[in-house]
């Protein structure tokens, strides 16, 4: 049984990233469970989403310290959840991608609100370069593309999951962002 | 792994969507609910389906009573709500146990252990025992689907409404469901008159408690009802009795243990419990929230451990179950604590201006439940009380009795007012109380995801519906015309004048603050972002009092984040230097 933890802020597409990942793994023939956001996250609290997969999955939420991959769209949130990652796990961080208009963001209640000052200490940290993203490209799908390199589901499973979620131009845009992240 | 289609029609569904699927396959005629996290998506999943009337009822009591009407005419009906909604529906709940039902009647309640989005963490299993109704509890989406579908059969076999309890860990998790066929809708047979049964008056109900006891006893020993539960054989040293999401945690925390997984949590399948307990040396009960199962099993005369080592907020996890099983103190919460961001009102929210005005006033604010509850957080820190739906209006009346000199403002949202505020306003008028109340009318149930309400002008089906006239309603309840006012929520000067005038008046006053939810407004007609002219900004920070997340302090001045700004222009009213302007630089 493996676990991916998605973390970010309201409006960044964290839930969509987790949904597409879950659907791709499901289409690859695995048992999958997700634990969606709880509570008032729509109003600006942190957003997290867990995807667990394997031959048979029981709890949708893992024990602390057993997450294999943390996929984060915000440095502060990555730091928040680092303790959940197992020592040999990895953290994929794509920081600095703008939140969608209309979403709300609040200031952390504790800790340093300046995202740049948060230090991430994990041997498996891999920072993605947001400058590689086209203007307006969906950062969440770019991150999913990068994440897909670590997972066994084949590209057709991922593309099918994206097609199941988006229509028309939106589907093309998201597929391109995924492909760019996977490249 | 190159399969791009699942091998069957299996789907990944949330527990809530799975409940809806089970109800569809059971052939329901109608579904009723009031929005409330974590139960909202059950009804949402049933909207727009041919042959099913899906209704956002005005409150949960009405939802259950409508559903009983469908049932008594032979149709199957689903009612869904969050745990505190069941309190509102408690009055009919205790009585539907007495009337029983004709068409299958299933009441789904979603508990929120850990209080992710609720004011309390009540355990709704107590309602099953108190109202003498059977209750099922699934532990994943497929079971949610199966249990709900079978609950309708059970309900009709025993002519008893059936409760299904989910918790957040099931309702908001997604897992694999293997659905079946959706049947052709059957026409309800019509009302079968039976006054002895449906008119609950003393001469008719005398024998009902014993009949209900007999019915529960029959369910407790019924083989089909027993099939909701199962034994999983493991070591004979260690036995665990569990239910719901806690079962999943046990499977990870104690993979070798023998488990009795209870799918029916009331009445207990006593024969299964006795058999299981006779097979293992040590029996422990692992359950979320209250020691409900442990108490029931002890009442059977069986000594079990458990029920007293719960987490402080009632929510379990794999870690908590492991700790309990190893005799260690359970972790208090599995939430992260490093950043822990507070929820805020959205940029451009029409409530921002209102609360920035109220913050400057010396008033006690009796608040209520909705997005506006967030005014308890900085920068406003305005709301002084939040209890339950509609309570702000009543508490303000009580405060006026205790301390007539206190300046109290009662604040309620449009949907909450419809849900529980109308009789409360009437109470104030009739009893000649002092009540200064504000209806924050954003024309939606925004907090739970923009469901429509009687103030929206559209129905659950998305079609036009009569729009409630709050001013006309207030006048018809007896509020003097001169003390009812409507106002644009974006006009700060007018807001200040109107609230001040209201506070100076005795008796009942109603101020309706109108402006649609910012998310609705931006979808309907997006407005260009505002910007700060740096040559004019003096860095006085007056605009930050608005608490808008689009306004960010930067190097002595304020910047408006274009990606967040909704273009409402309210902040410009606060700027003494006229530095906030429309359009690009």
Walk me through the structure.
- The complex is a heterodimer of chains A (183) and B (585).
- Chain A contains 5 helices and 6 strands; from the N terminus they run E-H-E-E-E-H-E-E-H-H-H.
- Chain A has helices at 14-27, 75-81, 139-148, 155-165, 168-182; strands spanning 2-9, 31-35, 46-54, 67-72, 85-93, 125-127.
- In chain A, helix 1 (14-27) packs parallel to helix 3 (139-148) and helix 3 (139-148) packs across helix 5.
- The two termini of chain A are 27 Å apart.
- Chain B has 585 residues and is an alpha/beta fold.
- Chain B contains 22 helices and 23 strands.
- In chain B, the strands form 6 sheets. Chain B has a 7-stranded mixed beta sheet, sandwiched between helices.
- Chain B is globular.
- Chains A and B meet through helix 1, strand 2, helix 2 and helix 4 of A and strand 8, helix 13, helix 16 and helix 22 of B.
- Strand 2 of chain A pairs antiparallel with strand 8 of chain B, so a sheet runs across the interface.
Radius of gyration of chain B: 27 Å
Biggest beta-sheet profile of chain B: 7 strands, mixed
SS summary, helix count of chain B: 22
Strand order of the largest sheet of chain A: 2-3-1-4-5-6
Order of secondary-structure elements of chain A: EHEEEHEEHHH
- Cα distance, first to last residue of chain B? 53 Å
CA-to-CA gap between the ends of chain A? 27 Å
Q: Low-confidence parts of chain A, pLDDT < 50 over ≥5 residues? A: 100-105, 108-117
CATH first level of chain A: Alpha Beta
Assembly state here? heterodimer
What is the fold-level CATH name, i.e. the topology of chain A?
Answer: Pyruvate-ferredoxin Oxidoreductase, domain 3
% residues in beta strands of chain B = 15-25%
- Our count of helices of chain A gives 5
Strand proportion of chain A, as a percent range, falls in 15-25%
What do the pLDDT scores of chain A average to? 85
| Residue runs with pLDDT of under 50 for 5 or more positions of chain B | 1-7
């Amino acid at each position: 049984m493996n676990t991916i933890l998605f973390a970010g802020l309201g409006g960044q597409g964290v839930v969509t990233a987790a949904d597409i990942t879950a659907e791709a793994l499901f289409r690859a023939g695995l048992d999958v469970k997700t634990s969606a956001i709880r509570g008032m996250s729509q109003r600006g609290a942190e957003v997290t989403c867990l995807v667990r997969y394997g031959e048979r999955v029981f709890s949708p939420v893992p024990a602390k310290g057993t997450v294999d991959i943390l996929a984060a769209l915000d440095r502060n949130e990555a730091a928040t959840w680092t303790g959940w990652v197992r020592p040999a796990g990895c953290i994929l961080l794509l920081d600095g991608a703008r939140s969608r208009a209309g979403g709300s963001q609040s200031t952390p209640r504790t800790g340093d609100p300046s995202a740049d000052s948060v230090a991430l200490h994990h041997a498996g940290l891999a920072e993605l370069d947001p400058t590689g993203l086209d203007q307006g490209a969906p950062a969440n799908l770019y991150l999913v593309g990068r994440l897909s390199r670590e997972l066994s589901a084949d590209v057709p499973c991922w593309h099918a999951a994206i097609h199941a979620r988006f229509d028309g131009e939106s589907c093309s845009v998201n597929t391109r962002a995924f492909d760019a992240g996977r490249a | 792994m190159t399969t791009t289609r699942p091998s069957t029609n299996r789907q990944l569904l949330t527990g809530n969507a799975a409940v809806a699927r089970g109800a569809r396959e059971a052939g329901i005629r109608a579904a009723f609910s009031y929005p409330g996290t974590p139960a909202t998506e059950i009804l949402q999943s049933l909207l727009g389906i041919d042959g099913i009337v899906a209704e956002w009822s005005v409150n949960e009591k009405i939802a259950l009573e409508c559903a009983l009407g469908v049932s008594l005419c032979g149709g199957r009906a689903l009612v869904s709500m969050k745990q505190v909604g069941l309190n509102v529906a408690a009055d009919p709940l205790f009585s539907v146990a007495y009337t029983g039902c004709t068409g299958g009647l299933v009441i789904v309640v979603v508990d929120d252990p850990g209080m992710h989005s609720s004011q309390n963490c009540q355990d709704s299993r107590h309602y099953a025992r108190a109202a003498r109704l059977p209750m099922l509890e699934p532990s994943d989406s497929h079971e949610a689907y199966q249990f709900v579908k079978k609950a309708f059969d059970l309900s009709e076999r025993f002519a008893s409404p059936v409760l299904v309890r989910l918790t957040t860990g099931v309702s908001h998790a997604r897992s694999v469901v293997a659905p079946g066929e959706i049947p052709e809708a059957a026409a309800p047979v019509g009302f079968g008159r039976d006054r002895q049964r449906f008119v609950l008056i003393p001469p008719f109900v005398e024998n009902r408690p014993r009949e209900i006891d007999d019915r529960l006893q029959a369910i407790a020993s019924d083989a089909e009802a027993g099939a909701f539960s199962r034994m999983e054989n493991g070591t004979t040293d260690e036995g665990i009795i569990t239910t719901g999401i806690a079962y999943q945690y046990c499977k990870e925390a104690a993979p070798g243990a023998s488990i009795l997984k209870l799918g029916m949590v009331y009445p207990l399948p006593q024969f299964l419990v006795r058999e299981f307990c006779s097979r293992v040396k040590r029996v422990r009960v692992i359950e979320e929230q209250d020691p409900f199962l442990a108490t029931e099993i002890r009442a059977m005369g069986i000594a079990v451990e458990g029920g007293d080592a719960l987490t402080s907020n009632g929510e379990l996890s794999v870690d908590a179950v492991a700790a309990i099983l190893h005799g260690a103190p359970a972790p208090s919460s599995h939430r992260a604590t490093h950043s822990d961001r507070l929820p805020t009102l959205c940029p451009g929210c029409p409530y921002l201006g209102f609360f920035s005005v109220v913050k400057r006033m010396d008033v006690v604010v009796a608040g209520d439940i909705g997005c506006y509850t967030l005014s308890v957080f900085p920068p406003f820190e305005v709301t002084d009380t939040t209890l339950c739906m509609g309570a702000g209006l009543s508490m303000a009346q009580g405060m006026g009795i205790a301390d007539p000199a206190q300046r109290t403002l009662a604040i309620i949202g449009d949907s909450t007012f419809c849900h529980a505020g109308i009789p409360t306003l009437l109470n104030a008028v009739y009893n000649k109380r002092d009540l200064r109340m504000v209806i924050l009318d954003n024309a939606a149930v925004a907090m739970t995801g923009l469901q429509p309400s009687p103030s929206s002008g559209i129905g659950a089906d998305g079609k036009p519906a009569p729009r409630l006239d709050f001013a006309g309603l207030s006048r018809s309840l007896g509020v003097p015309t001169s003390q009812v006012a409507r106002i644009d929520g974006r006009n700060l000067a007018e807001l200040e004048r109107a609230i001040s005038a209201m506070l100076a008046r005795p008796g009942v006053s109603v101020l309706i603050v109108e402006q649609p939810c910012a998310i609705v407004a931006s979808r309907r007609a997006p407005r260009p972002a505002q910007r700060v002219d740096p040559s004019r900004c003096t860095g006085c920070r007056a605009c930050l009092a608005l608490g808008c997340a689009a306004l960010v302090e930067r190097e002595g001045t304020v910047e408006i984040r274009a990606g967040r700004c909704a273009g409402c222009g309210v902040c410009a009213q606060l700027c003494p230097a006229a530095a906030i302007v429309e359009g690009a630089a």
